[in-house]
Design a protein that fits this description.
CATH architecture of the largest domain: Up-down Bundle
Helix content: 55-70%
Largest sheet: 4 strands, mixed
Bound molecules: glutathione
Order of helices and strands: EHEHEEHHHHHHH
Distance between the termini: 26 Å
Oligomer: single chain
Number of helices: 9
Number of domains: 2
Structural class: alpha+beta
């Protein structure tokens, strides 16, 4: 039995949970809920970086970094490929843009939590906010494939979770007002069972 260390607010952990559900691995993974910010000893015992998500494999190795964990789940799970051969480089482009969006949003939230609103005015804070706006525009320009019932890819998962994380933690970005086609795509993705079952609190 694999073990996934996670918390409910981590967008990275949510990507892994959605990937696990899409790959048909729900019963192969025990969820270990923990708080990475309080140096939970159970998490430290498996991941020295004290970060979630972390997956302990059936072989007893700990995988950290959400995309590496998904790489493993994609190889061992029976469900459809999350990075299919057809359209592979486009899927990876979406994955990278989605991960960059998630990172800029997450770092904005953490910087505000530790340094207050002034964090947004710093050089790095301004860079993060510009990266969010540019990435949203690039995703909207590029267009996301309409999700069919069986066609979810890693790119679609990561982009949709990043957009959802913005609605959850940075609603003032209000990306859905500026990018209505992206909002329609996001609505459809959010109705997948894997998304409904892993909603942010
Ligand atoms: N690049 C990592 C990011 C993981 C990450 O930042 N996790 C956060 C929660 S969303 C965490 O555990 N932070 C605790 C800490 O940094 O001490 C991934 O893709 O998995």
């Amino acid at each position: 039995m694999m073990e996934l260390y996670l918390n409910a607010t981590s967008p990275y952990a949510r990507v892994v949970r959605i990937a696990a559900l899409e790959k048909g691995l729900e019963t192969a993974i025990t969820l270990q809920w923990c708080d990475p910010w309080s140096d939970d000893p159970r998490l430290l015992a498996v991941n020295p970086a004290a970060r979630v998500p972390a997956l302990v494999t059936d072989e007893g190795h700990t995988l950290s970094e959400s995309l590496l964990i998904v790489h493993h789940l994609d190889a061992v799970g029976p469900g459809p490929d999350l990075v299919p051969q057809a359209g592979r480089s486009e899927t990876l482009q979406q994955t990278g843009w989605g991960q960059g969006l998630m990172e800029a949003a997450f770092q904005t939230v953490i910087a505000r939590k530790h340094q207050g609103a002034a964090a947004d005015e710093s050089v790095l804070g301004q860079r993060r906010l510009r990266a969010i706006d540019r990435t949203l525009a690039a995703l909207a320009d590029h267009g996301m494939d309409q999700p069919g019932t069986n066609t979810v890819t890693l790119g679609g998962i990561v982009v949709a979770v990043a957009l959802d994380y913005l609605l959850f933690r940075l609603p003032e970005v209000a990306w859905q007002d500026r990018h209505p086609a992206l909002a329609r795509w996001h609505d459809e993705m959010s109705n997948r069972s894997s998304f409904l079952r892993t909603r942010f609190p």
